[in-house]
Every structure is written in structure tokens, then in C-alpha cells.
Design brief:
42% of the residues lie in helices and 14% in strands. By secondary structure, it is α/β, with parallel strands linked by helices. The chain has 20 helices and 17 strands. In the C-terminal section; belongs to the NnrD/CARKD family. Belongs to the NnrD/CARKD family.
Length: 517
Amino acid sequence: MEHEHKQHLLTPNQMAMADKAAVAAGVPAMDLMAAAGKAVADAVLARWSRCSVLVLCGPGNNGGDGFVVATLLHSAGWPVRLAFLGSMEQLSPEAAHFFHAWQGDVEGYSVDVLEQTDLVIDALFGAGLTRSLAGKARDMLDEIIARDIPVCAVDVPSGLDGATGAAFGVVAPAELTVTFFRKKPGHLLFPGRALCGELVVADIGIPAAVLEALDIQAWENSPELWYRDYPWPRLDGHKFHRGHALVYGGENMTGASRLTARGAMRIGAGLVTLAAPIKAWAVYATALTGVMVAKLEQSQEAEDFEELLLDPRYNAIAVGPGAGLVGFERIRTRKIVLAALVTGRATVLDADALSAFSGDPQTLLDAIVGPCVMTPHEGEFARIFPEMNKSPEMNKNHRDDKLTRARLAAKQSGAVVVLKGADTVIASPDGRAVINSNAPADLATGGSGDVLTGFIVGLLSQGTSQGMSPFNAAAAGVWLHGEVANTFGAGLIAEDLPDHLPKVLSAFKTRLFTFKK
């Protein structure tokens, strides 16, 4: 459970509640602020050599942390100056205490203080900011950016929304951000992730027990969340215990569904069948050695696919990669999708399976009656949920809030939604969500999403008998997808993903004893 606690993501409001709960449990607020400031000072001392530091303090508790940082760095023999934006009346008792503990001068809040500054400690505003910065604060950040001065941010870079990762106007990018107790969604969601630089999470003495009283619904994706349900092969099992995945393949873009089928095989599906139009059957049959290929007659492909589904051993279905959208292909793809969904079996919908319903998304959403995972990128998401940004439940400050959009889409559709990108969000209809943070830029290559569809459908095919839910299968598939790319490195192409997966799975299995401690 402690491992899972470390993956919790707290909104700024939840972090404030955790602070209050810690104080109610007997931890002095003064001690929390002192520990936060010390954590930042320690991180600075560990990363930078002695240099001229300017600590920018705001009127809230973030500024209080900054007062502590200034005092500790000065005590360590560093040349430190402090600039305070605010008034004494705005400070909490704890922040006021550490303000008075500062023995040096308090500079006027002007860009002139940046002269001869080697490092800025940004303790202006924390993760709970809900407005754009203006006036002196904005001028200061603009000048820091213009002069390219290194920044260490306290909690988040000032101007960053800790709940969404969105920027309120100008934000000075940090080389290092030190946050406290637990990460916030804004640390992982772009552009926040890029603006935070290296992220350090410091323990400041808040008991983990306070988490139990918070309605936490977001986590950073990690095996600690789902390893207990991972469907390793049973010692007494056979191939049907490991499931039978059915993948639909189109007649033109044949590589896409072949990648999906190979991904499903590599992640452990006991059997994989690819249903192919007769025109492309020979291509699939000669290219896929370990995959069974079923023929679909040209005049009745949808009907043949429905007939295949009469076999109950097909317990997970993938439709979309390479399915086709040109002319009659679009109609056929829609029929295939609806035939898969009406079975109520676990289904993964990607790419063309989603775009085929552009202009008529409700037909798709109404057809989802069983376990379903949708894996749209932003363009496909907009086609299926075109009115999302108008929803009254959307973040009023940031209509592009990815976490909220994914959650609302999952709630509306009844499916697990994997909103793909460098900061992929996996959302469940019940409100749970994970943000993936291990995907490298190397994954931006054609076909990688098709492999991800295969990973997820392969896990779902095994999970039917062994207990991996669609939400966990999606989270595991996304994390493994990123981990394979990380371990493979530069030069990655989509074909490498399934073939490199066994090495990652072997290493993952070896690490399990760490999670179980």
C-alpha cells in the first residue's frame, strides 16, 4: 500500500487539505514550512556550486518557504539576496516568523535585482495559482527568461497550474523543481512537465495516513498500481487459459493490424487470429507466422466477422488499425466495430474504428455495452467528443485540461479512455485516472500506437480469466509501451516494440519482489 501511496497525485486543494490534516495530527505548521525550505536548500546545494542567488518570495506560504531557503543558503556561505513581493499583512504567522528570521536586506521588487544573479529561487506562487500573473511579477519572469538565468522552483514554477499543467501566461522554466509530499498532476501534464525541469519530491513530515481521508482519484502510472493483477502464465495453464485475441485487419494499410497482432502475441495472448478481407488474405498469411488468419469474403465481410464472433473463445477484440476509411471502407469499418461491441466482450477501439464515427459519435457511444478501451490521439478524440470543451464540468480556466477531458469522456462513453500523447492519460468511467510519464520522444514514430492497441488487447484476452480489468490492462499496456521504448533507445521503429518487449517483461518480473515488500 505504501508503494501505491507514493504514486498518488494531489490537486492543489488536496495538498492544502493534507497540510491541514498534518497540523491537526500534531505536526506544527512551522515545522512543515521549515522542512520544505530545507528540502529546497538541500537540493540547491546538491546541484549547484556556490554562486550568487536571488530568492524571489511571494505573499503566501510559498514565499515562507523561500525565506527559509534564503536563510539556509546564507548560513552555508552563499551570497544571497531576497526580494519580497507583497506585504507583511498578507503573510501567515509561520511565513512572518521566517521573514523576521532572515538577517539580510530585503530588496526592492524590480528587475534591477537580477543584475549579477547566477541562480533564481522562484518562491513567488505555488501550485494553487488560478490567475495569470501581471505587473511586477510578470515583468520579473519575463526578464528572467530574457536573461536565461537558471531557476529552481519551489513547488511549481510560478504561473503554472498545479492541477492541469497549463500555464497562466508567462512561466520561467525551471531547471529544478522541488515539490512536497506528493506530485501534482501539473508536474506530469504538458506544458507543466517541460517547465518543471528535474522534479524532486521531498518528505517534509506529513504522515502518509492523511491520504486516507482524501478522495484521491489520480495516480502516476507505475507497476505498483497494477502488478498484482498482471496475468503471468499459470504453471498448470495452456494456451486457452491465456486467451484468444481477435484483430480486424483492413485490405490496404495491412502493416497496422499486423503490428497490433504481433503486439498481442508478444504480451502473452495464448492465441491471436487476424480477420482479413480476402483481397489481402495472402499478405497477412505470409507475413504472420504465429498468427492465424481468417478470410472475410469481399461481399459480406461484416457478416463473416459476425460469424467468427459466434466462437466464444475469442475473448478480446481489437478494431481500428488499418481498418480503412475511404469510400465503402468507412461503412464496413463501422459495421465491424458495432459487431464487436454487441458481443459485450472486451474490445479495444483505435484509429479508424473511432474516426469512422466522425459526425455521428453517439452511435458508437450507445453501442458500448461491455468492457471497452478507446485509445484516441487528440484528433480522434475531437471527432468522438466534439462538444467536450463546452461541458460545464470542464475546467473554466483551462478548457484544454487533458485530465478532466479524459475523465469526462470515460464517464460519457462507459469505456476506459486512453488519451494518447507524451503525457498519456488513462481514465476510467468511475473517475479514476492515471497519467503516464515514462514515454520517450522515440515513440513518435508511425505504427507505435498500433502496437499499443495490441498490447492492451493481449492483456485483456488474458485478463478475462485471470482478473486484469480494462483500466489496469490499459495502464499496464501504456507503461510497458513506454518502458520498451526507453530501454531500446534511439533508432526505435514500431516493429522493435513487440520484439523488445520480452526483455522488458523479464526485467519487470525480476523487480516484482521489490514491489511486494
